[in-house]
Design goal:
Chain lengths: 67, 475
Amino acid sequence: MAEKDDGRRQIICDELRQAGISDAQVNLALETSGTLLEQLASYPLDEQHKRTVREIFMQYAQVGDRT
Amino acid sequence: MSLYLSVDFYKHAAQTHPDGTGKRVLEVTDALNQLGRKLDAVRFTDEAFAQEQVTQLSQPQQPGKTLPLKAVPLAHKELYGRTFKDGSGWPYEGGSKTYEGQTASRTATVIDKLDSAGAIDCGRLVSVEYALGVTGHNAYAGTPKNPWNPAYICGGSSSGSGAVVAAGIVPAALGSDTGGSIRLPAAACGLVGVKPTQGLVSRTGVFALSNALDTVGPLSRSVRDSAQCLSVLAGYDAQDNQSINTEQPDYLNGLEDGLEGIRIGLAERYFLTGSTAEVADPVASCFERCAQLGAICHDLVIEGIEATNPLNVLLIATEAAHVHKKTILDRPELLNDQTLMRVLTGIFTSDGNYRRLQACRADFIARTLPDLFDKVDLFMAPVWPFALPTIKDSDVGANPEAAPLMQRIGHNTRPVNFLGLPAICLPIGFDANGLPLSVQLVGKPFSEAILLRVARAIEREYDFWSHRPDLSVFG
């Protein structure tokens, strides 16, 4: 999986450089993205939770208690 | 020119002096073109269209039809599309040279609603590029000056809306809020800003940044004006995949009911501790004043709130990259460097990580909301985490060393977007530089009515708009 992700990132980096975006900008974006994705990975997700945000909010909409 | 007129003023004038409506609207378009342009806040006006709307108002209306914003002149952030019967449309560039010359392909649902309510649409106001930035800098569309002091920013991304309403040109303007873009400029300019519950107000026809997080709402000088606008804007739209069908209250009902029995929390950890004393202390003082006015006040801890800020940044960047990838790859040189970097940050997010991001958001909301709103009806927090900076000091393009500090601007606003909750900010005084200080009130989903009621009680107490900016500095 990690190799697949590395390959995907490399393809995107090549695409960005071909578009004329500088190496410094691509590297900074990659670094910032990596930091944020690490924070995502560290979130203790409850895999049992299956409802979407909209579904949760629909429940609040139906409660009718706005106070 | 007559400035600082309210929604009620225009409605009343339309009843008592209907023949003067055209002149009043002309005064507003003139003020947008004169003072508004001196503020660098206006993209364009359309006097002919505004007068056409005035003429339509003079025609007989359908029996039983009410016009809750009759003859109220408004102008909005440039993200709101408008088209005409001949197929043409107003410019629709999202504040970006990358979309230069693009026109709207449809009228935004909320613009249709405002038209049906009798409001007059005078034009469009400056937005930060792609609505993706919190300081208000935009080298292409303009960097609006703060009416309270032109050396200072208006905040972003609804920067033009903040400037024009605070200068008194229109009573209200639409903004959009994905990470704080209504509340930050509203707070910077001393305005009421309403970020509605996710799903309450349609985004159809609005220039998109993040499907999961974009919300649409008004900025105004009074709680009452915002309540009147929100009563028109709210409502289900089947074309918006986040829209939720819910009972739509009249937000003016109960507005003057005060604070008796309202349970208010103060989110000291993260929100106050993450802000400087200059902005946090007035919020704590406001909390105490609410207790004196009859509110039941509690300290509050929101477990895990720290995680939401970076996840919101990632979600915005990922969805913005999805929306704008092709444009960026075609013409990256046309983008502001900061916009480019913010969007590029999200371009590496895989489909799997995007799904996890959405799942983490839903998980956090499901875990947090029941406990949080079992204890309180709403909580208070600052909007800006530090005193408003000048345009020069916050220009990251010219001062790259300012970037880390500027990235902190959304500290108090992004978690609210991540939670999808409604929030209203309003002014509660002035800082040492004479710039507005604000508080935000955050409630449970669809609790806008109670937030407006509390905001109105605080507004009465502080009477902020008894002061006005000195507009003579704009000539």
